[in-house]
Specification:
Strand content: 25-35%
Low-confidence stretches: none
Shape: globular
Strand order of the largest sheet: 1-2-3-4-5-6-8-7
CATH class: Alpha Beta
Mean pLDDT: 95
Number of helices: 4
Largest sheet: 8 strands, mixed
Structural class: alpha+beta
CATH superfamily: Gcn5-related N-acetyltransferase (GNAT)
Number of strands: 8
Helix content: 25-40%
Number of domains: 1
Distance between the termini: 21 Å
Order of helices and strands: EEHHEEEHEHEE
Radius of gyration: 15 Å
CATH topology: Aminopeptidase
């Protein structure tokens, strides 16, 4: 069972199947959604992952503001760790909340959590070429650019 991960200004609150389905149907799922959330990438991710999820534990987290609980983004993994212990992370914030350090705090919480999992040895991330803000965030917390392929930058770091 996943638990809430709490930082100074944001928390990662586990998503549920019910909330994910509601968001896809255009409902707020009873959540206090901030301006700009859910964003297009959130809905795309839910469309891809929800058909395969059989429990809440297979979903990611909502990025919520500690001060008032509003949902400003999401973070998680793209599947489970592979046989080599590699796992890919993903994250995104609603546009009005970018550039304020919330993303860095959210990704640090996620990375710290994943680093404590015994089956995770390497964290990876894919960023669209040109997304300098996301590239800078990853490099700031220890990710290294490994290569560029298919209009994406690929990063990794030890768990």
């Amino acid at each position: 069972m996943r638990t809430q991960l709490t930082g100074d200004r944001i928390a990662l609150t586990p998503q549920t199947l019910a909330a994910a389905r509601a968001l896809l149907e255009g409902d707020d799922a009873g959540l206090p959604l901030a301006e700009g959330y859910p964003h297009a990438d959130t809905l795309d991710g839910l469309r891809m992952s929800l058909p395969y999820a059989t429990s809440d534990d297979e979903l990611g987290w909502f990025v919520t503001l500690v001060e008032d609980g509003r949902v400003i983004g999401d973070a998680g993994t793209k599947g489970a760790a592979d046989d080599e212990g590699r796992i890919e992370i993903g994250y995104g914030l609603a546009a009005p909340f970018r550039g304020r350090g919330y993303g860095t705090e959210a990704v640090r919480l996620l990375v710290d959590h994943l680093g404590s999992q015994p089956d995770v040895r390497v964290l990876t991330a894919e960023v669209e070429v040109g997304n300098v803000a996301s590239r800078t965030l990853l490099e700031r917390i220890g990710f290294t650019l490994t290569h560029e392929a298919d209009k994406s930058w690929w990063f990794e770091r030890p768990a």
